[in-house]
Amino acid sequence: MTQFIDIAALDDIPRQGARVVKTPAGCIAIFRTGDDQIFALDDRCPHKGGPLSEGIVHGAQVTCPLHAWVFDLNTGLAQGADEGEVRTYAVRLEAGRVLLDAGFLARRSAA
Amino acid sequence: MKQKLVVIGAGMASGRMLEHLFEAGGNFDVTLFNAEPRGNYNRLMLSPVLSGEKTYEQIVTHDADWYEAHSVDCRFGEPVVKIDRENRIVYSNAGGAPYDALVIATGSAPFIIPVPGKDLPGVCTYRDLEDTNAMIAASAPGTKAVVIGGGLLGLEAAAGMAARGAEVTVIHLMGHLMERQLDPAAGYLLQKDLEQRGIKVHCKGATKAILGEGRVEAVLLEDGTVYPADLVCMAVGIRPEVRLATDAHLEVGRGITVDDQMRTSDPSIFALGECVEHNGQLFGLVAPLYDQAKVLAATLLEQEAAFQPVQTATKLKVTGVDLFSAGDFADALGREDIVFRDPGRGIYKRLVLEGNQLMGAVMYGDTADGSWFFDLIKQRKDVSDLRDTLIFGPAFSGGASANPLAAVAALPPEAEICGCNGVCKGKIVTAIEAGATTLDAVRSTTKASASCGTCTGLVEQVMALTLGDGFSANANPPMCKCTDHTHEDVRRLIKSLGLKSIPAVMQELGWRTVGGCASCRPALNYYLIADWPTEYRDDRQSRFVNERNHGNIQKDGTYSVVPRMWGGVTTPAELRAIADAADRYAVPMVKVTGGQRIDLLGVKKEDLPAIWADLNAAGMVSGHAYAKGLRTVKTCVGSEFCRFGTQDSTGLGIKLEKLLWGSWTPAKVKLGVSGCPRNCAEATCKDIGVVCVDSGYEISVAGAAGMDVRETEFLCKVTTEAEVMEVIAAFTQLYRENARYLHRIYKWVAKVSLDWCRAQVEDPVTRRALYDRFMLSQSVYQTDPWAELAAKPADWAPVADLTLRAAE
Description:
heterodimer; A: 111 residues; mainly beta; Rieske Iron-sulfur Protein; four-stranded antiparallel beta sheet; B: 808 residues; alpha/beta; FAD/NAD(P)-binding domain; Enolase-like, domain 1; 6 domains; five-stranded parallel beta sheet; 26 helices
């Protein structure tokens, strides 16, 4: 089930930066690119658990702050020679507000 | 019987709607209310009126004869105050007008930012002829005008007033101009063009207050900057003018809600223009408004029509500024960029493709192909066959891809290779044949590729052709995959071309990526900080995490906090404050560092502002234990206590640390000051070491005790503390200005030679100049980051917490 909920104003998130949303299943990083695209990914690098929200955002990619793995924000896939994937979440921008698909919470509690 | 049609608002949308209605021979008695005391004119043309290129008379769309010919009852200068839906009557203060059908076209109102002084005389917006006339009246040569807002409207206002001789400053909240239509690279070129016309642009500027007594005198920004102003124009945005509709209890979202037929929630009331909201969307550009006008005319004539918003393209109406943007040019899933930059001519073009379709285009400097691209976007044409040459526009018919070397070989000797310095191929070949066999030699003998460097690849190809196997390309690799330039080239070009922002570097040096990468961005940010300390503003998002969060990130995502202890000296009060903080924030480990500091390890990110505030309150500042910057000055106890000490090494260490702290450097810088040659402070394996002797101070540099272990090399000996300070500040500045990012001092000295460094700091004039530049930079950067960041603790916490929500 898709269930978009309002989590923040766009301007709460710095351009070329990220903020995190706390959930029972761990933190989700909400990224904002230089041209105001919004992406949501697990805030956890599959390599050693680094907080991706603290990485440098360039184009639609982020570089993990711990060991410099690079992930595509669209797909969550590691770039280059590294292999790995970060879970992505649907996110929407409406009238300056950021909406996150929180359907995963419902699924989780139903399980 | 004729229907009674009442229209509120004589703007461009309702004007076009009336034209359609009359052309179709519609049978209506029209009453037209307008708050402005005039009829319909072309608002888009207010900019040429402002700049003096047109007069008001030239932009009138409907004159008195037109209204009379169509028997329109004009109620100009009569604002409507009420809509009586039950009896279908519209009221102004002069009386009522009954309607069968009502059209609300009240347009939009400028957004006024709620700062002190916003109501002072001399503050205007940019919406109608009154505003325009106010700006014209205030734009006499020599007057000072400030425009708040660097969007389409604000820039047109700025250019118009500048054309009349006013000194104009544009203050823009975002990082680059027209951020909704342009990407940072195009925004940078636009800023450069405007600055060449004498318009000052201040980006990332938040207005705090408009100052003045009885009349506007200046604008104050959050960062403390003050711009004197005789006139302030607010152009930060518009919002739909919906008050009448709200009062009449029509359905209103951000704008008046309408369906595909432009009908509001009341079947006999319609709305169009900037005041409406259709499927959640608002409209500000003229093309969709004209489409709405057509649909509404058809609806009123009882024909079928439905409004479908189409994509729009933007052009700035400032004479001589050529920019174009259309479609959607944001990064998204599966999208690819084609980027073309011609730094010499100030041209930037970016196409955004998704699959085989063109999604968006941004162009600056050469927009001749704009409409062709816009057409491809609108038609959703398959461009896969065109892709190789798409960026060159419709004129380029394509052809087989040529071997670049063959292409260079085919060039005649008089073909220009280096545009900056006008060097042709023949001249380069002659120089190579005369013995210039390296790129540097070609540069110094011919000047080719010595300015912007974009032609370096071409020059190397000429060299490869001329020298054959004897040529080996530059062994110094490029900075990163985003560019062919080396670090050294980038540093040189930042200075010689006067590049003062990251987008400027990326544009002028032909970066291949849109936003750089995690490798070049911190390097560029450092180079700009070092070279333009007073003009460039630190870009926090181009900082590595440790410098962004002012703590060292640990493997579990927590941080370490190290307060500064000048020269390694502390007090019982500081120790108590550290102990209290460690207790209060349940710090898992408290450890003494190798640099004579105390490290609080394992602090959670959201606790950082509070722990900093506590330590600040006890008089401590950041120890920068995470920085590519001055870390620590380690000292021994020296002559104050030690029976062997020859000088006050502790006191000198503290003075050096107070001189150098806060400075950003290519890589970390650690100092040691020992009071005698027994060297208890281990000064001879530091980046810069001082060993005190009876006759003075021996300064040595380029030590290391990390992956490489090196003893420092002797730089010079001086006799006073003041000389120690000046030599070390000058040497640090030399390093700051010349080294490659991430190179420690020992690596840099190995490249440039210690003799060269010594020659610089031993020459009194050069040394003083270096010292002065260092102090200028310190006047900006010697600040405690904690004090500023601790003031906004909310920024450090999660932006939302869904754990409670799930528990419900």
